[in-house]
Amino acid sequence: MFEIRQVEPSQLPLALLMTADPESTAIKVYQDKCVAYAAYLQEALIAGLLVAVDEESHRAEIFNISVYPQYQGKGFGGALLSETLQCLSGQGIEYVELGTGCFGYQLAFYHKHGFRVDRVVKNFFLENYSEPIIENGIQHKDMLRLIWRSTEQREM
Fold this sequence. Notes:
This protein is α+β, with helices and mostly antiparallel strands. The protein contains six helices and nine strands. The protein has one domain: Gcn5-related N-acetyltransferase (GNAT) (Aminopeptidase). This is N-acetyltransferase domain-containing protein. GO terms for molecular function: acyltransferase activity, transferring groups other than amino-acyl groups.
């Protein structure tokens, strides 16, 4: 059985979170200020999501969505993201923002879930990560900031 639950951020193992963010020091900085959601398959943890929520401004920021490699590409991450966005919208959150690299499978994934490009942060990965992040033989340099608006989802 597949199930999504809200959990304590500390219940998401560092090894899982590092499948999405290779910088463990960055994870430790944002993990404590986040709400965590986890996906379980037959009671085994397979995916996690960390989101910081600011109810006053009706905004949230997803810092990490990660799926163990053997479960990637099977819809679990998408289900976790959709459920989280639905929960946040139900709490009155109107905007959900996140940062990601400028290329790779994750762009199509986020666009499929209603995120749109908001802006580019030049040299983010060069200035904030101790080791180069390489994907498909290309080094990530700039970060795309994507935004999901609950009002746009109702219009779709």
